[in-house]
Amino acid sequence: MNLQVSHERRRRIHALAEMNRALLKLSQALKRALVRVEFGRAAAERDGDSLRASEERFRTLTETLPHYVIGTDTDGAVTFVSRSYADFTGLPGEKFLGAGWMDVMHPDDLPQLAESWRSAVKSRRPYRAEARVRRADGAYRWHVA
User: Fold this and answer.
1) Residues 14, 46: one domain?
2) Highest mean pLDDT, choosing among 19-28, 48-57, 59-68, 74-83
3) What pLDDT shows up at residue 130?
4) pLDDT band, residue 19 (cuts 50/70/90)
5) Among 74, 108, 116, 141, which residue has the fewest nearby CB atoms (within 10 Å)?
6) How far apart are alpha carbons 80 and 35 in whole angstroms?
7) 49: domain range?
8) 24 with 74, same domain?
9) Bigger pLDDT: 3 vs 29
10) How many domains does the chain have?
11) pLDDT for 65-78, tens place per residue?
């Protein structure tokens, strides 16, 4: 009986030792994962700071240029309009998002302008056009884009 208890005790000790080794491996893996998470978080913070600084430089540049700046995505939808352009038209910048830019174009220029824009976006080629844009007082002025 004493031999049987001793064997059972050794089996439990061995099982506990195996569990300890497994817990140690798990603990080490968790530490490595936490280090990666912290490293990733720090990198994301640096990237976020860098992105915010870049956006601030872009906004400063576009707001101080004497030119109108209009940004689009790869599908041709307007995503940004400089304050100077919004001031010229008398409309808030949000009004131009998507295809809202067409609302201030002279009706006689719009069909050809829209078609040449769609063609340039589709072909991914540079775009150049001349069109009349409605000013805040309702008068139209020629612009080159």
Assistant:
1) yes
2) 74-83
3) 93
4) confident
5) 74
6) 39
7) 1-64
8) no
9) 29
10) 2
11) 778 888 888 898 98
Q: Which CATH number fits the domain that encloses residue 136?
A: 3.30.450.20
Q: Which of 28, 40, 122 is nearest to 20 (CA)?
A: 28
Query: Are 5 and 60 members of one domain?
Result: yes
* Per-residue confidence band for 2, with pLDDT thresholds at 50, 70 and 90: low
Length of the chain: 145
What's the mean per-residue pLDDT of the chain?
83
| Residue 81 and residue 45 share a domain | no
73 and 133 inside one domain: yes
Q: Are residues 10 and 79 in the same domain?
A: no
pTM exceeding 0.70: no
In 3D, which of 35, 98, 108 has the Cα closest to residue 70?
Answer: 98
In 3D, which of 145, 64, 70 has the Cα closest to residue 109? 145
One domain, residues 114 and 47: no
SS3 letters across the chain = CHHHHHHHHHHHHHHHHHHHHHHHHHHHHHHHHHHHHHHHHHHHHHHHHHHHHHHHHHHHHHHHCCCCCEEECCCCCEEEECHHHHHHHCCCHHHHCECHHHHHECCCCHHHHHHHHHHHHHHCCCCCCEEEEECCCCCEEEEEC
